[in-house]
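Run log // design_07
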């Protein structure tokens, strides 16, 4: 029996599920609001949070272009004041996610 498969909570899985601080401005396109600049402040392989919501509401779909990932759709799943959380239409592949993190997480100077 292969023990490696018996441990689903590998470091890589946790790293992918964890939220990582981010500092990334990007344009989100929506049918309702057109092109909007948003600021991503944290990201996981499942989604991201913004802190400058221009008016997106729960259930709204946006499309954005992220480094490494390219174009991806996301669904607004919650909003509180100026913050909003979005879920990616698909879970990001780990190598792509790690490449994205490398480019959008705040660098320690």
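design_07 sequence
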């Amino acid at each position: 029996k292969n023990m490696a498969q018996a441990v689903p909570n590998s470091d890589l899985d946790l790293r992918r599920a964890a939220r990582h601080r981010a500092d990334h401005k990007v344009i989100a396109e929506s049918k309702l609001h057109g092109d909007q600049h948003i600021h991503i402040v944290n990201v996981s392989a499942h989604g991201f949070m913004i802190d400058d919501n221009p008016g997106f509401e729960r259930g709204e779909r946006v499309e954005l272009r992220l480094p490494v990932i390219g174009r991806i759709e996301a669904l607004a799943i919650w909003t509180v004041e100026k913050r909003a959380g979005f879920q990616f239409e698909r879970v990001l592949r780990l190598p792509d996610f790690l490449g994205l993190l490398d480019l959008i997480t705040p660098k320690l100077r």
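The first strand starts at residue 20 and ends at 30.
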